[in-house]
Amino acid sequence: MKKNKLFIIGISVFIVLIIFASLSLGAVKVNVKDILNIIYGKIIGSEDPYLNIDSSAVYIIWNIRLPRIIVSLFIGGMLSIAGVTYQGILKNPMADPFVLGISSGAALGATIGIISKISFNILGLNFISLMAFAGALLVIFIVYNIARIKNEIPITTLLLSGIAMSQFLTAILSILMMLFDRDLNKIFFWTLGSLSGKGWDSIINVIPYTVLGLLILMYYSKDMDILLLGDESAKNLGVEADKVKKIILVTASIITAASVSVSGIIGFIGLIVPHIVRIFIGPKHLKLIPLSFITGGALMVICDTIARSIIPQEIPVGIITAILGAPFFIYILKKKKAEVF
Length: 341
Fold this sequence. Notes:
Blueprint (H helix, E strand, L loop, with lengths): L1 H23 L7 H13 L10 H35 L12 H15 L4 E2 L2 E2 H21 L7 H25 L4 H8 L8 H20 L1 H7 L3 H6 L4 H23 L5 H13 L3 H25 L7 H24 L1
Antiparallel strand pairs: 1-2
Helix pairs in contact: 1-3, 1-13, 3-8, 3-11, 3-12, 3-13, 4-5, 4-6, 4-7, 4-11, 5-6, 5-11, 8-11, 12-13, 13-14
């Protein structure tokens, strides 16, 4: 219990420090006092608190960095709770939010959006984001229907369906990249993930999925604990295993699709964060889900700050998450290998 409280206090303080550090860092350095004055003035609707601060700094903090940080928090959090869900339901510590081919579906959708040259916005989402979201949802629908046997969805069949669909869509994506090589850089940049240019409209787009996803997963958190005991034990304890698994997996998949449609494909966040949080607070999903959301958000803000600050030219944040996540993935593999042998 004491360990849990220390972790909660520690991550809360840490995330506040990370947010202010991220707001301060960049091509234009802004001190913490000015940041506080800008945010306070914008909230109360008065220019007096930041009247003596350079207008460019005010614009950068309020219109560029702050919304981007908030989007980072939501995207990192959403990918993390999706990772918690997949690892728990699939009983696989190496599962991540893209395990069912969602990333391939989103990538193909986005690629079609890029090469089509169609340009319009719906509720703040451009055509590329809409196509990515549609592609991810379509893959979820296809994979679930391929895997379904009567009214049940066996985990092994689901995973195999996801792998097969992912390989198939990746092949189509490769063909499109060869045929439309003039758009190669844009496609490549999207598939590596980026939060560049994400503003207040992007926050509005992710909030409904975040809130609804968190509520559903929290509601089924105790059922998820029971499912870890196995389907038969869960049924004996009054849990409709197949129904609950379906609801939880669909929820996690939609959360992932929503994240990808805004940020592109950002790997490893949903893989490593659940493991980090479990070390401190244990496997109970009632605590694991919200704390993974907060921790994932904090990690994403760190990665995005590095991506836009480490060199003069911004690099895709997916590269940073891969650099951090790949060694952790290898560590998990070695740990599982030691357990087997």
